[in-house]
Amino acid sequence: MKKYLFTLLIIIGALSACTNEDQIDIQYETTFKLMPSSVISGFKEIQSGDFKISGDYKLRTSLFIYDKSGILVDKQVSYLDNYTDEMNVSTPLPLGEYIGVATADIVKYTNSNISLEYWFFKNPEKLNTFNIVDAGYRGGSDKILGVSSMLFTVDKKSSVTIPIQPSGCLFASIFYGIHEWSSIITMGLYYSRSNDYLLFNETGEPDTKIISKGTYNYILTELDLTDGTLDNSNNVYDYNFKLPDPEFSLKLGIEFFDNSTIYSDPVLVNMEAGQQYLFTLNLVDFSSELTLTNGTTKSAGSELILPYVSKAAKKQMFQEQVKAATKQTLHVQDLVKKHK
Question: pLDDT tens digits, residue range 111-121?
Fold first, then answer.
């Protein structure tokens, strides 16, 4: 009898062990919908179609799933044709709490290979080591980066929707009458410190890190009037995307053929994710301005005006620079997007 009882206990124990193990291994199919259209929905195009993705470029849309301890448990990537497309994926996950990080960025994608990317995704194996790094290209509007995170719980049948938001600020720049003065060779906006990293805290919220400081030697946008590509364009515009910076300081700089350079006074901008700024420089009427076109800012309105010198002083300065030169007669056409 004791022999039979002992055998029965072994069988029950084995069945109990199998049942517990099966419960641990049970995974439930969880569906995800990533919506990148919200990345650009708050931004304004200078010309209709500027944000259209074409040619060999694709919208790399990625999903990183972390458990509550911050360990990567799954990663999904889709290459979409447009911002209006959606990424729909599903993955089996055990019951529990998770953090989903969704990203959207444009890459050059040829023959199933990435040949150009504006952002590097480094060390995603753990949430506290995951960082997104600026690859160093200006990129225009193609450099817009979208990032969103969400806490979610897998409870048998789960469905998660993540609208992806812009992770930084978009600058639009318009230069009018770029050939008004033949003594000018370059003009642009220059900033004083670099903000090239996007990090994540324990809940998946993105944060930034200032990695270096300089003396306005970083280029936000720049026109080189000596390379020939802008000879037939009198008005030119460009886009640039930057990560948030509460003390983003920039100057307008103009360089002349005699190697002299003049700079405006610096402007300090509280640059927040989702904002868009418009910078205009008009060399016909000697005016320049930086204005916030969407979003909110803690900066006073007067701080959004790019200070320079008075209109009369500007006119005298430019006349002195070009007194030996003849004003060019140029063909004026509609705004032409700067070649990337």
Answer: 899 999 999 99
Between CA 72 and CA 207 the distance in angstroms is 19
Query: Does 213 score more than 60 pLDDT?
Result: yes
Residue pair 67/119 in contact (Cβ under 8 Å)? The answer is: no
CA dihedral of residues 210, 116, 173, 169 (deg, nearest 10): -40
CA gap 292, 98 in Å, rounded: 37
Per CATH, the number for 28-163 is 2.60.40
Q: How far apart are CA 4 and CA 9, in angstroms?
A: 9
SS3 83: coil
Give the tokens for residue 65. Answer: 């799933």
Q: What share of the chain is helix, strand, coil (3-state, %, to 5)?
A: 15, 50, 35
Rounded CA separation 336/330 (Å): 15
Mode of pairing for the β-strands spanning 96-110 and 206-209: unpaired
Q: What are phi and psi of 314, to 5 degrees?
A: -60, -45
Residues of the chain with CATH 2.60.40: 28-163, 169-337
Which of 2.60.40, 1.10.10, 2.40.160, 3.50.80 is the CATH number of 169-337? 2.60.40
Q: Exposure of 283 by Cβ count < 10 A (0-12 exposed, 13-18 middle, 19+ buried)?
A: buried
Q: Which two tokens stand for residue 33?
A: 């919908």
Does the pLDDT at position 207 exceed 80? yes
Give pLDDT tens digits for 40-52: 999 999 999 999 9
